[in-house]
C-alpha cells in the first residue's frame, strides 16, 4: 500500500514535534498499529525524519585512538571500533551499520563482493543503500542446515543484493558434503562452477569468524560434520573457522578429508583478495582473530570497544 507524503509528514510532526505517543496517533487517525508501524518505516526510508546520535567528542576520540592502536597491534590495513552496547544483538547492529557505511565507500564500477554468512555479516543488510555502480555479490561458501536460515551465506547474499540493487551469485550446495567425490560431481553443475570461478576475481569480501565451540560455530551446530571430523579438529588444536574453512593455532588451514569435502573459498584464496573485512566481537573470538590476522586471512577489522581493548591487552 502506498502512503501520501503529506500523511507521512503529518504523522512525523505528531510524533517528533508534538510528542504524541504512537497509541494516541493511531487512535486519532483511525489507524491500526501494524499500519502505523509500516508508515513509520516509510518515514525513515524516505528520509522525512533523520535521527542523528551525537556522541561526546572525547568518546569519539577514544574510539579512534583505540582503532589506531588495534590496527598497529594486529598489523592490519584498517580497524573500525564502535561502542559496546548493552546486549550482543545491539552491538552486532551497531557494527553492521558501521560496516554498511564502510562498504558504501568501497564500491567501484563492476565491483565483485564476496559474502560469508553469520550473524555479524547479516546485521549490516538493514543499513545498506543502493550501490552507485553495477555490483556482483558472491557467496563464499555453501549452505549450512542450522535452524536460523536467515544468517546463511546464500540468504546474506540475497538480502544484500536486494538492498544494493546488485546481482546475486549463490553457491547452491551444502557447505560440507558426505564424500569428496560428491564435491567433484557438484562442481560439474554449471551454476556451481560459475560461482566458484568467481572466487579469484573478488575485489573485496566481508566475513565472520567462528570459535570452535558449538555455542558459536554455525558449522558445528549443524549436522554436516561427522563425529570423526569433530574429534580431528579437537585433537589438532584447531582454533577457528572462516567461510567454512578451519585453521589451527599456527594459522595453518585444515588440509584433510573434511577440507576436500567442503564447498567454499579456501583461506589461501581469501588471503589474496585485496580487501577482506572481518566483523567480529566477543571474548570467545579473541584468539581466532589474533591468529587469523597474523596469518593474513583478513586486513580490515570491524569490532566493538571491549573486544578491541582485549586484543590490545596481550
Molecular structure report:
The protein has 314 residues and is of the alpha/beta class. It folds into 2 domains: 5-45, Arc Repressor Mutant, subunit A (Orthogonal Bundle), CATH 1.10.10; 57-312, 3-Layer(aba) Sandwich (Rossmann fold), CATH 3.40.50. It has helices at residues 5-17, 22-29, 33-45, 57-74, 88-104, 119-122, 153-164, 180-186, 190-197, 218-221, 227-235, 257-260, 267-270, 286-295, 305-312; strands spanning 78-82, 111-115, 135-139, 167-169, 204-207, 210-211, 238-242, 245-248, 275-279, 300-304. It has a 7-stranded parallel beta sheet with strand order 1-10-9-5-2-3-4. Helix 14 (286-295) links the parallel strand 9 and strand 10 (300-304). The relative contact order is 0.14.
Brief summary:
This protein has 15 helices and 10 strands. By secondary structure, it is of the alpha/beta class.
List the keywords:
single chain; seven-stranded parallel beta sheet; 314 residues; Arc Repressor Mutant, subunit A; alpha/beta; 14% strand; Rossmann fold; three-stranded antiparallel beta sheet; 15 helices
Shape: globular
Please give the alpha-carbon distance between the first and last residues.
55 Å
Number of strands: 10
CATH architecture of the largest domain: 3-Layer(aba) Sandwich
Helix/strand/pairing class, anyone?
Answer: alpha/beta
Biggest sheet descriptor: 7 strands, parallel
Unreliable runs, pLDDT <50, ≥5 residues?
none
- Beta content: 5-15%
Helix content: 40-55%
CATH domain topology of the largest domain: Rossmann fold
Amino acid at each position: 500500500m502506498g502512503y501520501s507524503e503529506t500523511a507521512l509528514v503529518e504523522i512525523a510532526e505528531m510524533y517528533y514535534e508534538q510528542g504524541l505517543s504512537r497509541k494516541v496517533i493511531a487512535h486519532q487517525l483511525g489507524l491500526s498499529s501494524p499500519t502505523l508501524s509500516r508508515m513509520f518505516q516509510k518515514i525513515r526510508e524516505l528520509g522525512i525524519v533523520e535521527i542523528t546520535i551525537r556522541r561526546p567528542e572525547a568518546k569519539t576520540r577514544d574510539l579512534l585512538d583505540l582503532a589506531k592502536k588495534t590496527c598497529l597491534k594486529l598489523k592490519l590495513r584498517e580497524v573500525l571500533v564502535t561502542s559496546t552496547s548493552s546486549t550482543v544483538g545491539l552491538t552486532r547492529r551497531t557494527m553492521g551499520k558501521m560496516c554498511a557505511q564502510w562498504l558504501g565507500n568501497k564500491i567501484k564500477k563492476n565491483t565483485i563482493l564476496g559474502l560469508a554468512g553469520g550473524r555479524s555479516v547479516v546485521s549490516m543488510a538493514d543499513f545498506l543503500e543502493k550501490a552507485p555502480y553495477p555490483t556482483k555479490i558472491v557467496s563464499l561458501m555453501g549452505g549450512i542446515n542450522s535452524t536460523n536460515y536467515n544468517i546463511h551465506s546464500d540468504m546474506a547474499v540475497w538480502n544484500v543484493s536486494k538492498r544494493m540493487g546488485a546481482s546475486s551469485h549463490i553457491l547452491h550446495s551444502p557447505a560440507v558434503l558426505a564424500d569428496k567425490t560428491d564435491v567433484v560431481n557438484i562442481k560439474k553443475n554449471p551454476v556451481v562452477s560459475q560461482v566458484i570461478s568467481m572466487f579469484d576475481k573478488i575485489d573485496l569480501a566481508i566475513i565472520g569468524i567462528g570459535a570452535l565451540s558449538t555455542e558459536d560455530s554455525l558449522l558445528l551446530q549443524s549436522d554436516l560434520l561427522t563425529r570423526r571430523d569433530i574429534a580431528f579438529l579437537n585433537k589438532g588444536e584447531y582454533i577457528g573457522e572462516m567461510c567454512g574453512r578451519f585453521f589451527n593455532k599456527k594459522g595453518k588451514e585444515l588440509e584433510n578429508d573434511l577440507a576436500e569435502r567442503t564447498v567454499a573459498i579456501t583461506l589461501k584464496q581469501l588471503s589474496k583478495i585485496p580487501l577482506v573485512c572481518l566483523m567480529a566481537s566477543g571474548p570467545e573470538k579473541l584468539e581466532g582473530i589474533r591468529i587469523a590476522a597474523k596469518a593474513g586471512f583478513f586486513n580490515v577489522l570491524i569490532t566493538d570497544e571491549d573486544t578491541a581493548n582485549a586484543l590490545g591487552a596481550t
